[in-house]
Amino acid sequence: MSLTFHAEAVIFLLMGLLFTGAALFARRNQQARQLRGRPATATVIELIPSRQLFRPKVRFVTADQRTVEAETEAAADAGQYEIGQQVEVTYDPENPENMDFAGAAPAGFRLMLLLGLLFAGLGVLQILGYVLVFEQYAH
């Protein structure tokens, strides 16, 4: 086995590490917000179209009795939420508009993690010489 490899192997590996790191960083930040945040019961008041998905807008009352309306970061499939539906949220007491559905993963977390692992795995396999992705274009 040779230690020579093409630049694309390193690029795939670095892209994979970047995507994986970004996904894990977003998840860590969201978990920290969940831990320091306050729970509330919210009502879905609007479903805002976002491409082929919808972004629920909710209304809830904070612990100090302020009524807050906020859009969620996560988009949802049609039918996942209905106007008038009660949902549990966690909000930042210093900035209540910064809220998440309780226990929800950050938007795009699974996709970014999957892409990251796929790119990193492909990069490692290229470095080890098991996969030659761009070999046909090398000549």
TrEMBL record:
<dbReference type="InterPro" id="IPR021994">
    <property type="entry name" value="DUF3592"/>
</dbReference>
<protein>
    <submittedName>
        <fullName>DUF3592 domain-containing protein</fullName>
    </submittedName>
</protein>
<feature type="domain" description="DUF3592">
    <location>
        <begin position="53"/>
        <end position="98"/>
    </location>
</feature>
<dbReference type="Pfam" id="PF12158">
    <property type="entry name" value="DUF3592"/>
</dbReference>
